Amino acid sequence: MFKSIINGMRFIFSALKISFKLPKVNKTLESEGKDAAYDEAMLITKKHIDEAIKIGKINLDITGTENIPDEPVVFMGNHQSYVDIYMLLKAIDRRVILIAKKEINKIPVISKLASYLQVLFLDRDNPRKDLIVIRKAINILKDKNYDVLVYPEGTRSKSKKMGKFLGGSFRIAQKTKAPIVPVVIDNAYKVLEKDKRIKENVNVHLKILEPIYIEKLSQEEQKNISSILKGKIQKELDDLNKTTN
Q: Nearest-CA neighbor of 145 among 69, 93, 72, 67?
């Protein structure tokens, strides 16, 4: 328990260090624009991610990065834990805009960092605002060399079991024809969510699957894209559990 408390304090300190670096990012924003500020903020974020992985002694296994096409994509995957985004950003070196719940924006340091990373926040209580967020994500894919990351479950499962995939998440790919890149993560919930404290030496697996091209699907498959994506992710989770158990 004492070791867990120490690790928790180390994690908080690592996150707090971000706040001292943000004024420099703001200067970059004013002098060079949003893209340069994003890149600088992402470097700061990735340093924090490296520290977090070291603190938790996370054994991260990454496979499938060769499946990401050389064009803007929509990353979509299962959502077990707050650390999922850490693992994906560790795995890829691309500009990606996260779509997240508005509650995250209430944390002061995270809120400021998120503004530089151009995070889009959903308000589940206000469908009209959610439509605005979806439109912004569509414009990002059409007009900028950025990817979009959205978790179709809408919240963390905190387990190996996936929740229902929300249909609205798929509008971005449907409207832009951007390929959907499935992201499978397993055991991430054990790092933090399972015992409400940081657990060391967890084997976390992140696998990126082959892209799904909407325009190559039949009309019936397009209607069932949610089930198709969930099925692909579930199969990989089942396969991972067969090999690791």
A: 72
Residue ranges per domain, the chain?
Answer: 60-244
- 35: which 2 tokens? 């893209």
- The answer to whether the predicted template modeling score (pTM) of the entire model surpasses 0.85 is yes
Pairing of strands 203-208, 120-122: unpaired
Strand 180-186 and strand 203-208: the pairing is antiparallel
Q: What token pair was written down for 148? A: 């979009």
Q: What is the pLDDT of residue 142?
A: 86
Q: Which H helix or E strand runs over 17?
A: helix 2-32
**pLDDT confidence bin for 126, thresholds 50/70/90:** confident
CATH superfamily of 60-244: Glycerol-3-phosphate (1)-acyltransferase (3.40.1130.10)
Question: How many helices (H) and strands (E) are present in the chain, helices listed first?
Answer: 9, 7
